[in-house]
Amino acid sequence: MTRTGVAVTGLGMVTPAGVGAEATWEGVRDGRPAASPDPRLAGLPVDFSCRVPGFDPGAHLGRRALWRTDRCSQLAVAAAREGVRDAGLDPGVWDASRVAVVVGTCFGGQQACEDGHRDLLRDGHEGVSPALVPKMIPSMPAAEVSMDLKVRGMSLSVSTACASGAGAIALGRALLLSGACDIVVAGGADAAVTPLIAVGFQRMGTLSGRRDDPAAASRPFDATRDGFVLGEAAAVLVLERADAARRRGAVPRAVLAGCGSTSDAYHVTAPHPEHRGAEAALRAALAEAGAAPREVDHVNAHGTSTRINDSTEAALLARVFPHAPSVTSAKGALGHCLGAGGAVEAALTVLTLQHRLVPPTANLETADPDFELDLVHKAPREQEVGLAVSNAFGFGGHNEVLAFRPWS
Q1: Does the chain have fewer CB atoms within 10 Å around its N or its C terminus?
Q2: Among 367, 363, 371, CA closest to 314
């Protein structure tokens, strides 16, 4: 086992399965769908979603900070705090100038934007909060994390649609290997389960219409899939160079062995029909990891539950991995958490390595007969995984693949 390169020393997650990495792991491991009717979407063509249950932002940021923060930033701060704590790091004593924060987001403060527009129409210009702009701009999740942790190194925002969280992790790894910093808090956050975004996706035909059974709506790779369910989440990985982590006595969770980032240059929303860009990203991540495709034991798939995305990803995986590694998608349980999705799924891949257990794809009852994949469903599967990849793809042809090895 190689203990060089970049180590994952901490995880933090706030997802529709619960607050905290353990709650999320348990929900996904048990295949529990989080989708339910959403009162905030009442009256719309799609009126259900996957929201974070029981999240009290005041408990994480303090009541005085709530006026200036959108839910997206609030989720990001909560996940970052857990990740840093899990890594055994103390922001009170670290060299803050050598710590970086990279947070990916698709929409940033979307709820603040919609609320501000409502207030303008209802109350005029004086009804708009002076905190509107800092609440809504997409750089603020990274900024709020940096301020909360007193980080004085780089603070960067990545926005590559639904690949944003994974892209932030890839960028964090590159910063570490370049020597630009010694610790990176990297991940993604999105809280865009709003009426406008829900209607926008519904008009595109990407959302599931199973209003009579929301819990069963997100069905990645299932023959009856009809679209995804909107979700909200945040997740971070704390990254350090492996030798530095070892010197300080940390016990890393995994090694981030390689990353691949490409563009399709094909279409605004549709993936390339042959998934050429995604394949290039996959092969680049494996090359960085010093691995051949046949060495991959497990794939945490993007698996959105849409007809076209699952079909193209399934064809890609069958082509690159004829030995059929195990495949799962967390979106059956958590919905599509947009810019946070890639980070959540990266964290779940790390936990899969640690627990030697592959979570099932929730709601997968009958796999599409066209798919030549070893899809894990119904129940978790015990498996020793020596190399795993996590896929994240986004509108505009953004492709991110992360490759992980176990630490021990």
Answers
A1: N
A2: 371
d(CA 252, CA 234): 21
Give the integer Cα–Cα distance in Å for 366 and 295. 28
Supply the pLDDT for residue 120.
Answer: 97
Query: In angstroms, rounded to a whole number, what is the distance separating the alpha carbons of residues 392 and 150?
Result: 30
Catalytic annotation on 336?
Answer: yes
DSSP 334-363: H-B-GGGHHHHHHHHHHHHHHHTEEPP-TT
pLDDT digits (tens, 9 = 90+) for 223-273: 999 999 999 999 999 999 999 999 999 999 999 999 999 999 999 999 998
Catalytically annotated residue among 162, 181, 259, 337: 162
Identify whether 117 is a catalytic site residue.
no
Q: Identify the H or E element spanning 381.
A: strand 381-382
Per-position DSSP letters for 31-78, written without gaps between them: T----EE-GGGTTSSS-EEB--TT--HHHHH-GGGGGG--HHHHHHHH
> Residue 249 to residues 87, 94, 215, 253, 356: CA-CA distances in angstroms?
11, 15, 43, 13, 23
| HSE toward the beta carbon, residue 168, CA cutoff 13 A | 40
Catalytic residue, candidates 298, 302, 377, 398: 302
Check if 298 is active-site.
Answer: no
CA distance 49 to 54: 15
Tell me the backbone φ, ψ of residue 357, rounded to 5 degrees. -145, 125
